[in-house]
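retry 2 of 3: previous attempt timed out while embedding flavin mononucleotide. Reduced batch size to 1 and resubmitted. Inputs unchanged:
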Amino acid sequence: MSERETIHLAADLSFLHTDFLWRMPGSWVGYPYYSSSEFYEDIAKTAQQGRFDLLFFGDTGGTSEDFGGNHDAVVRNGVKWPRHDMTAMIPILARLTQGVGYALTMSTTYHHPFHCARTFNALDHVTKGRIAWNAVTSAYKWEAMNWGFEEMMDHDERYRRAQEFLQVACELWDSVEPDAVIMNRESGEFLDPEKVHRLDFKGDYFNVRGPLPALPSPQQRPVIIQAGSSGPGMDLAAKYADLQFSTRRTVESMKQHRAAIDEKLAKFGRTPRDLGILWSVRVQVAESVSEARAKEQAFLDSVPPEGGLIEMSQWFGVDFSTAELGMTLTDFADQVREQKGNLGTFDELLKTTDLNMTVREFGRDYMSQRVLVAEGTPKEIVDKLEMMHYETGANGGFILARGFHASDNITEFVEHVVPELQRRGLSKKDYSGTTLRENFND
Ligand SMILES: Cc1cc2nc3c(=O)[nH]c(=O)nc-3n(C[C@H](O)[C@H](O)[C@H](O)COP(=O)(O)O)c2cc1C
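retry 2 succeeded.
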């Protein structure tokens, strides 16, 4: 899925207006929120200018009560709340742009593969082949309760269900062959029935007769993204995904991750080039590193001291408001493991953090340092991106995690960093294909 060594660029638009960013300049205060698409339209046009391949919308459908035992903290502070369904925004943005693809999240834990296959077939048509599906296993109990479950499905069962879900969805997308359409007025033939197939799928979770009653879409299947990093998550990615999102905090850890997924890909008869990784990185461009740090400090100053703990509670399903002075992350490890939520991510934190840090200190750090950071002048940033890219096999690219200002952060990246990437021949100057899959392989 990333046949050449190009650095592919993506941006995560999931939390541009929550998580304390709404207090920063350029935010939604005084703006008509989701009832206007202009904010996203501007970002999409900027992304096209920077030859980005992908804009990503994450999704979860719950309101966390983890911090303090109720939803007060997340609602009062706007932490990963609200979460609007972004499906409706995508056709608007796709019409305005060429080249940029759009990734939408749909849970394999709560949806049905028939619904998913139909929706993404439709999105692939209206975006002219520029849609990707972030196939997640949902790790949040408050979301489970909105879908009618008293308790969250067990981690490994969520992945067993996801395996079956992806199998059915892919079979549905393949159930009408690309050349099945005849539409000959003279002969009166519309489609060739020989090229339209039933599935007759009967599994542990889904029974689906098929075929998908839809014309084949430009990409046939959406580009498939998987972000799980536990053992079963990596298996799912290795079998089905074109792309993986990965949050790794050191180059060493990135290299280990790449090696682990390559080993799994081989197990499924695939090659490393079949799966590109988009590494999460926060980029802060400035005249110097110290100026970049000053921007970070201005953001941190606007965040209450418990800000990071509220986010961590939501992410790991544990009440970090109970952290007493002096308690460390290790003191919470058993509780996090019991939740069976974001296991891969928590293990990464344990591996890459000074474990003498108290949870409260760590929470502060988490607000700005949760992902890899590249900061400073365009040259310094591109040096770092280039090094990380080649150290990890030059196979994918980077997804910009949220910066401190929406949407200035993306604009600054496109105006100052992209020209340097292009000058060094690292990122493309133009789109060569029309579909997302074609552009990602370039
Ligand atoms: C970069 C990234 C983006 C993610 N986006 C979502 C999302 O939008 N919705 C969601 O429910 N989970 C999301 N996840 C969580 C994963 O899908 C998965 O459930 C989680 O990583 C736990 O899987 P694991 O135990 O295999 O690591 C994301 C994870 C990462 C690393």
